[in-house]
Amino acid sequence: MATVNLGRLRLIWRGEWAVSTAYVLDDVVRQGVSTYICTNAHTSTSSFTNDIANWDLMAIGSDGLDELADIGVWLDNAGGEGPAGPSSNALNERYGSMTIFNASNLNMRTDAGGGVQIITIPTTGEYFIKCAGAQGGGYQGGNGGIAWGTVDLTAGDVLYCRVGQRGLGGGQSTTSTTPLTEPDATNLVNDTTGANNIGGGGFGDGRGGNGGGPSTGNTDSGGGGTAVRLNTDGVGNRIIVAGGGGGGYLEGERFATGATSPPAGGGDGGGYYGGMAMKVSEGSGSRAGGGSQTAGGHTGSGGNTGTQTQGGNGPANDGGGGGGGYWGGSTATNTGGGGGSGYVGGMKSTNRGMSMGGNAGDGWIYIRRVG
Fold it and tell me: How far apart are CA 41 and CA 56, in angstroms?
């Protein structure tokens, strides 16, 4: 007589699939947002992908909220400052407890070196992306630009996202005893070596240029550009970029307090073009230009030209750093840095745009599925 195991006359719910676990026929597990039924008794391996031959898809499920379609995803700099992007630990702390970034939904992760926020798209569709570049450093750092558009993405596509960070402010002029109206109070120091200007360009895609100096006055670094790269983490795979603002010119800000002196602000981030820096009356240097769609901005006397990976560094004889972007802003002596340009060439031509300036502080990225 056959023996009937009454306990196996129903499906057995085993919860989340787990590694190195013994499963038998008709066990049911959850993997991601879907459920699977066991077709062969076995002990699971190190990954569900390797184990899939022992399971049949039972139901394609949902965790009850498709954040990409309902509310979108907001990425920021997770507390990163200056040239160093946020660490992978900081990003994991920021997003790790959020349902949207678990392995079953958005598959978000960070690169080992920190700073790059990596998203695997879960659902084929049309996505809206909007991003803002970071402001340049200092009291009069240029604002970051804004870029937006829609793009068709396929499930499994990978987005490499870099959020621009504001450039660092420089120190007080070594030749001035007049206090500066610099909001970054921790940077208001007499700096005879220019240490406050070294490596101060804001992290991003590309990075803001360092402020120049220190012979007559310390200066501010450029803000980082914000961008999204598709499937390959290379400069040529950027689909949208918002330019960072150029760094201000502290010595110029001191001279600009009088009614007859113009301000010494960095150029705003782009936009098709990055903004040109404002000129100060002190010194004879020409103005620093913003990046374009094909090159860094106009390089003034003594300055450095922006590239596709970084805004120009401020000149050795004082000047703000250029903003990062699709192409970085350039620099000139005795003035702020030019803004970085934006880019929307990877977005659908029927729904895309850019604006110069518009964002103060650090950058951000917003992603939402719209179709």
Answer: 13
Domains of the chain: residue spans and CATH: 11-60 (2.10.10.20), 65-371 (no CATH)
Contacts of 60 (CB under 8 A, 6+ apart): 33, 34
Mean pLDDT by 10 residues, the chain (371 residues): 44 82 88 78 85 79 48 79 79 60 52 75 89 88 94 91 86 41 38 44 81 60 93 93 89 47 75 85 66 91 88 82 94 88 94 91 89 82
117 - beta bridge partners?
110, 161
Q: How many C-beta atoms lie closer than 10 Å to residue 235's C-beta?
A: 14
Give the residue from 331, 218, 316, 186 showing the smallest Cα distance to 267. 331
Place of tokens 């360009």: 201
Q: Residues near 296 by Cβ (< 8 Å), separated by ≥ 6?
A: 305, 306, 307, 312, 322, 327, 328, 329, 330
pTM for the model stands at 0.73
Torsion, Cα of 6, 8, 12, 17 (10° steps): 150
